[in-house]
Amino acid sequence: TLGLAGLIYLILAFFGGRFLADKAMAPIQKTWRRQQEFVADASHELRTPLTIIRTNLELVQGNPQETIENQEKWLGYIESETKRMSTLVDDLLFLARADSDALILEKTTFSLDQALRETTAPLESMANKKNIALITSYDSIPAFAGDENKIKQLTVILLDNAIKHTSPGGTVSIDLRKKASHAELIVSDTGEGIPREHLEKIFERFYRVDKSRSRAQGGTGLGLSIAEWITRSHNGTIKVSSDLSKGTIFTVDLPLNQIDKKALQ
Ligand code: ADP
């Protein structure tokens, strides 16, 4: 016979086991829920341009007698939504690969300031077109270990955002500072700023302070999630501070020569 102690032991083992199993499952369930949300959001984001493309295609096909101007307008919508979709698919693929650990960093040793110079040059004309001054200042970091293309991608995301959210006449600055153990990359702007209640959410996937404006500017809401992944995969940190009357500052710290070997295999 079991006896009272044995019975109590069995009951405790049963419920304790369930409790522990639930506890062990919690992070898995959380990841699973996040993935489901991601797929749902991604499908929704893809459906919007598809609907616009279909509607305008029907207009073109159904109105052959319509003026050239209108036909061109409809085709223009189809073109810009097609572009949006391909950016969106590229960004989604990046994050899907990152999630499944299939994204591999291609590590080399390169000049960080030179890489930034190459990245900034094409963005200068985008800033100039909007009458925004782009001010650059780079310390020399000739031998930085990391993935050059991804560091460039991170820089483009931050600069592109800064230019988009700054009014004509404003300033966007990019600074690279060499510190004892890390490189500090600062992208700041004199733009509209980010309201405090949104600040901690802007790195979330698809999060946008003003969804329709982001869409109108070709945004996917995934840029900062990608920027964060790139920073983290270099063992770095990314921080944001913002003031509605002054603008926004993104600070990226990247350790020098301390790249995690596992992430780079
Ligand atoms: P998006 O494709 O919309 O730019 P991101 O992930 O790059 O997506 O940015 C998320 C949101 O963060 C943007 O929609 C915008 O609301 C806000 N944001 C990012 N950078 C800035 C900035 N420099 N100034 C003001 N708001 C910004």
UniProtKB/TrEMBL annotation:
It is found in: Membrane. One of its GO terms (cellular component) is membrane. The lineage of its organism: Bacteria, Bacillati, Bacillota, Clostridia, Eubacteriales. This is histidine kinase. The chain holds residues 152 to 416 of 416 of the full protein. Its main location: membrane. It is an enzyme of class 2 (transferase). It comes from Syntrophobotulus glycolicus (strain DSM 8271 / FlGlyR). The chain crosses the membrane at residues 1-15. Its EC number is 2.7.13.3.
